[in-house]
Structure prediction request, 75 residues.
Amino acid sequence: MFRTRASSFFTGFALASAIAMYQLQRDVMGSHRILADEVEGYYNQLEKRIKQLELLTGLSSTNHAHQVARRNEST
Prediction:
């Protein structure tokens, strides 16, 4: 009788643990997805701001690198 109760308890515990782990994994993956989308949005905004600053200053990243290299060669 004790074996039956113990095996039933452990079977139920294992099943409940498996379901809880599955739900936890889904929650973690959902949070990861939300954070990744948010970071991607921030990155895209930063890229837009950099492009706007480059347009305002008349410098692009490649032009700026060439100008810095020319300044270093002349000194």
User: Anything to note?
Assistant: The mean pLDDT is 88. The helical segments are 2-57, 61-74. The chain has one domain: 2-74. Residues 2-74 form one domain.
